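>> received
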Amino acid sequence: MEEQRIIPEMGLKERTRWAINQVVKANNLSNEKLSKLLGVNKNTINSYRTKKTPPSVAFIQSLSEQFGFNPAWIVTGEGPIYMEGGGEEGAFLPYKEDGEREPSRVEAPESGYGTSDFKISEMLYKATKVLESDTVYSKALAGSITALYQAIKKERK
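>> returned
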């Protein structure tokens, strides 16, 4: 399983841009092809790639589901970059131009930061502040928590 990464120099817009660029590069996609795949306007993809606007919760969820990214990492920069099965070398990207699903690989961003120890009480405090913020981040975190809870629940059966 990939190590937990905290990359503080990358904000939400930078992580979104990085993830989109990895998908585009690994799958040789244009903004237009990626927008069709994710069900958004090509101008939306361009806006996210140029960091003009932060991504919507729906976009983060769609990008994560289609290409194996951890939505919590995109939103917070903490945790594994890829969901289970991505491995340390990168995520499997389930897209091929002819529509068939075939894995591609992308590399994780380089960072001088390794794994990080954390206190549960500090994480709960931070999560509470985010969830109470009534922002796009609160909705993304709530969705991520729910998805992770369901995955753990399913795994323990």
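>> The helical segments are 12-27, 31-38, 42-49, 57-67, 71-76, 120-131, 136-155.
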